[in-house]
Amino acid sequence: MKEINASEFEREVLQSERVILDFYSTECPPCEALASKFEDLSRLYGNDVKFLKIFRQGNRELAEKLGVKSSPTLLFYNKGQEVGSRLTGGIKRSEIIRNLDTMLPADKVKEIKSLIKPSVSEFDVIILGAGPGGLTAGLYLCQSKINTVLVDIALPGGQVRTTHEVSNYPGFIEPQAGYMLSHNMSEQTKLCGTIYKVAVDVTRVDLEKKEVVIDEHETVKAKKIIIATGTTPNLTGAQGEKELKGKGISYCATCDAKYYDDKEVIVIGGGNSAVEESEYITRFVNKLTIVHQFDKLTANKQAQEKALKNPKINILFENEPRAFIKEGDKIITEVENVKTKVRQKLVSDGVFIFIGMKPNIGLFRDKLELDQWGYIKTDEDMRTSIPGVYAVGDVISKKYRQITTAVADGTIAAMAIAKELD
Ligand SMILES: Cc1cc2nc3c(=O)[nH]c(=O)nc-3n(C[C@H](O)[C@H](O)[C@H](O)COP(=O)(O)OP(=O)(O)OC[C@H]3O[C@@H](n4cnc5c(N)ncnc54)[C@H](O)[C@@H]3O)c2cc1C
Fold it and tell me: N or C: which terminal CB in the chain sees fewer CB atoms within 10 Å?
């Protein structure tokens, strides 16, 4: 692996056969997360592909010329031409390998794969998920000198990392940008000494044996596991939804309704959470339109009656969203009548989507006792039905899912584990 600067780009990159180039920056957590993967892969592929690094801040002109806009960015070159897809953000080992493999002949790829040696490392505790719940557990365990590894399929921070603003986390007078709050939580836990394995593929989880396989070859073992994998909101699948998440489209009324004082919003859904959250949102907004796919609400009767009596709530039945478009400060929701197929555009200041959440338990669904909605059941110390396995945060069966409640769960699990391991 070699560090280059802009003046060497022509010779080292464009005049070479196969190259991978890492534009990195300092004070860049995703760059730190990439560094060990890059180094490890350079040992495997280094005879066939040139592994180069370039400091983005010191070589700004070249970065701009190449259209590199964030750190880290990985570029792949073959005989002077950029090939494959650029990788940026929380880059996974498997994504890099996919690109490298397309640059090499099949027999070479096979030969390199045969050199990958499985590794095993042992810890006291494995935490799956580095959102507020997992990060807090990591902090408490680390401060109790318990050897802990945090494993996350993405970069640390969980849902807070992509939340626009957080104004209900105690200790801050002004609202905090979600990415800053999660960054500070993560740095605090990391600086304490917790080991991070983030932006990885979690290949297999064995809760009974307390083993987790990462990136297909690296096994981490421990005495205890904490599951802190959170939830994923169900998406409508309408065009523009992913792009506008946190930029006008929200999945949390407690978190975001207060930003719509005297405004007008759309709510997608018609079940209990949509109708009850709509009631709550009308404390702030002037007008709220529920868009629901059926000809009746599916929430319980009491909630329905309340909503139907609320003068601020209108309901548009038998319609589904097809697209969300941002126009200045407004969000245009294009809806389609499910029977007539006629489309119309609804203009509002924001959109709330409540069509259910799913707990992230895909890898261990069958092994744990769950509630009727698929959330993990725990006791008051956050113990699950499997001895030595704890669960915290949004993934557990509970009534209120917030940062503060996830943080509290993480604290409890860590303290209970510290006591047990003592
Ligand atoms: C848009 C939005 C805005 C919000 N705003 C607020 C707010 O203002 N205030 C507030 O209190 N709450 C807010 N919330 C709720 C809050 O974000 C959650 O309650 C909190 O993040 C839950 O923390 P957690 O650690 O349980 O899970 P999460 O934050 O969801 O973190 C889970 C982590 O687990 C990782 N993961 C998933 N699967 C795996 C796996 N198989 N292996 C390893 N890792 C995995 C994920 O990548 C993620 O990093 C908001 C939620 C949303 C969606």
Answer: C
